[in-house]
Amino acid sequence: MAITDKDKIQIIKDLGLQIHKIYSSGEVQCKCIFHEDKSPSLMVNVKTNKFQCFSCGLKGHSFEDFVKKISGEEVDFGTREDWSKAFKDKLYPKIEYTRQPSIPILPLALRNPGETYLLSSKRKLDTNIIRKFNIKYWESENAVVVPIEDIGYMARYIDTKKFKYISGTRVNDRLFGLSKLDVSVYNYVMLVEGCFDVMWLHKCGYTNSLAIMHGDLSDTQKKILGWYQLPVYIMMDNDKTGEGDKIRDRIIRKLKGEFRIKVCTLPQFNDPNECTSQELQESITNAK
Q1: Among the four residues 84, 141, 200, 203, which has the most C-beta atoms within 10 Å?
Q2: Boundary of a domain, candidates 137, 169, 201
Q3: Rounded distance, CA 120 to CA 115, Å?
Q4: The whole model's pTM is what?
């Protein structure tokens, strides 16, 4: 059974393309993923199956060819029904998670040493961020506790530089900030190292930020990024040891050829949460 025009429109959405307008002629106007496309320049006709980007020159005459160029996947839409769902499941299979022990019952980090630490010149957060990310204070440990989605939490000790993830928290199964991700303002995903980097970026208005939380991007985290089909801006720590550069290079190797990548360079020896809002903006503007 051949796929319908409605199926094709849904597949275009499932491919992560942002649809600007659908015309009665069957033309679907989208933002092209192969370049910075502020004015939607890709037209796909679901009736004739012709497609063309009037900016970068991408074009063809079959819907199968269109899907292959966008996704890199060979498809045969004549072999089965319900292609809208089946195709997305093939590209970006859902990841089943085993829930880990929940966070202990603790008070929010407000009107206690946790708030003092988070609002200090070192962390520079505010009460809105504390509430947004549900940051807790653990009095007996003198630590702030950051929940990590539904898999556990991170404890950051206030009087030392030590932090730890609760036993069983598989940080490489998640990208921190996923439940708070908002790409409606900035149409790309910002990838950083740590939880506090994400929270500081949110305070600066970059709600499109996610953290890997360890020294590499896992295959699971890569799949999560694939759900969004957006450019990835990599903003790793610019530390003295050069470890941030090594992590950046590992991520580039994993994403190259499948994602549109840009690298943000921070001021020397700074992490994202140590930068001013202006420094972050300059780093993003000059990303290459």
Answers
A1: 200
A2: 169
A3: 8
A4: 0.68
